[in-house]
Amino acid sequence: MLLFLAEYLTQYIGAFQVFQYLTLRGILATGTALAISLVVGPVMIRKLSFHQVGQSVRDDGPQSHLSKAGTPTMGGALILVSIAISTLLWADLSNPYIWIVLLVTGVFGAVGWVDDYRKVVEKDSRGLPARWKYFWQSVAGLAAACYLYFAFDTPVTTDLYVPFFKDFSWSMGPLFILLAYFVIVGSSNAVNLTDGLDGLAILPTVMVGGALGILAYLTGHVDFARYLHIPYVAGSGELVVFCGTIGGAGLGFLWFNTYPAQVFMGDVGALALGAALGTVAVITRHEIVFFIMGGIFVLETVSVILQVASFKLTGKRIFRMAPIHHHYELKGWPEPRVIVRFWIITVMLVLFGLATLKLR
């Protein structure tokens, strides 16, 4: 929106030409999202507390969590509003990739909102039934995957690229739709599973989102893409702005979500942010690198799968409790120790993922 205004004003004042630079708009989008989160956050927390939109806590989990009962939840709505406003202000709205990530984020956020609303407002512990939650996630994920398959203008942009190999890629054809679907829906649920401790999910989301912003900038620049032997996806560089808003909104939310949390994200934020990251990874053709950088999300998901499979097959549990962050709590780790150590692991994984750009 502001880009169009700047383009108009450039004919009168040349200095407005500076807003054409992606890097500047990415920084401004980050700052705008951060400011919105910090300003609106206290108001939102008071409103949620007033309406008693509080978190319910399982009594079979870590005993330290019992004190969290009643803490306002559905705070992820603040993140989504900050992302949407900042993206609409600073992004090039003629870019189709901006709209696809906004729509995916919004639809997954709506699914999460319905689930949260039923749990904390209507006091229905089941929330949105799992089959319906997965159905609507699948509809949104498949729609995005199909759109991207037909929107990519060259066959190379539907190939699967493997890091560490300079000239190796697999031409997927229609299988691209299946891959994109699993990345978007899988990452949505993975972030949701990780969101179990104060700040545990949001900072890794910010770090991975920032790294994906770097990848978007490189894949959207033909010279950088050629030099680094990565796919060139015309227009994907605009996602720098969107990834910047994830960083700003996420850091603003972390201000209130850090231990001990004043507000929780809820499914409305976790499902939406995971889907957003997955969509950016698909557009930039860096699904495997995303898998590496989001290793904490993968670990949390795998721990749940292994726990369920082991219990059904053998009647025994592998972990004391899943997802795995609860396992470490029940082993006696204080909550802040679990959180910070998972953050440190994410920093290392993100750096390793970015390093693969040169290991080709």
Automatic annotation (TrEMBL):
GO MF term set: metal ion binding; phospho-N-acetylmuramoyl-pentapeptide-transferase activity; UDP-N-acetylmuramoyl-L-alanyl-D-glutamyl-meso-2,6-diaminopimelyl-D-alanyl-D-alanine:undecaprenyl-phosphate transferase activity
InterPro entries: Glycosyl_transferase_4, PNAcMuramoyl-5peptid_Trfase, PNAcMuramoyl-5peptid_Trfase_CS
Record keywords: Cell cycle, Cell division, Cell membrane, Cell shape, Cell wall biogenesis/degradation, Magnesium, Membrane, Metal-binding, Peptidoglycan synthesis, Transferase, Transmembrane, Transmembrane helix
Pathway: Cell wall biogenesis; peptidoglycan biosynthesis
One GO biological process term: cell division
Pfam family, one: MraY_sig1
EC number from the UniProt entry: 2.7.8.13
Family: Belongs to the glycosyltransferase 4 family. MraY subfamily.
Name of this protein: Phospho-N-acetylmuramoyl-pentapeptide-transferase
